[in-house]
Amino acid sequence: MVALTQVMKEAFEALKVFPLATASKSGIPNVAPMGSVFLIDDETIWIGDNFMQKSLQNVLENPKAALYLYGPGAKGCFQIKADVTVKTSGDEHAKLKAMIQEKKPNLSVKSLLILKITDVFECMPGAEAGKKLL
Questions:
Q1: I want to staple 112 with a disulfide (CB 3.0 to 4.6 A). Which of 28, 78, 87, 131 is the partner?
Q2: What contacts 70, CB < 8 A, 6 or more positions away?
Q3: pTM above 0.90, yes or no
């Protein structure tokens, strides 16, 4: 696994909504905005499944995803690729549920997507666009 740099972590912390890209086993793509996203450590991201349908089905069929970091306050533009594990119970699921309900008590948490970062790419326009950073 790879570890995010300080600049990447600061970009992550500046954002409120994260586009999550997934694909079905047969390759049908899906992108959906995610709001319950938490940087757990330098190589792990948790996403709460509050409303997922296609995204969840896709990662169950094809446990790969990409998360896009860009927006107001972010210094840089990054695409994070990750391997995904889905949990619907256990200590990690309970911890995520508490984290989400602390901020938004009305949200239910159906499952936890654990993203283990495998690659990070540059997304800013220019000569370095698409360059693998990590």
A1: 87
A2: 11, 15, 76, 77, 78, 123
A3: yes
- Calpha distance 113→123 (Å, rounded): 24
Q: Which residues contact 93 (CB under 8 A, 6 or more apart)?
A: 87, 109, 111, 112
Contact in structure between 2 and 119 (CB atoms under 8 Å) = yes
Residues 6+ apart with CB under 8 A from 38: 45, 46, 47, 48, 96, 99
Residue with tokens 């079905």: 24
Q: Which pair of structure tokens corresponds to residue 85?
A: 């594990």
- Domains, the chain, ordered by start: 6-132 (2.30.110.10)
* Chain CA centroid to CA 74, Å: 16
122 contacts 129 by C-beta, under 8 angstroms: yes
Structure confidence by residue, pLDDT tens digits, 28-43: 999 999 999 999 999 9
Q: What is the amino acid identity at position 74? A: A
Supply 15's token pair. 């954002």
pLDDT digit string, tens, across residues 78-115: 999 999 999 999 999 999 999 999 988 888 899 999 99
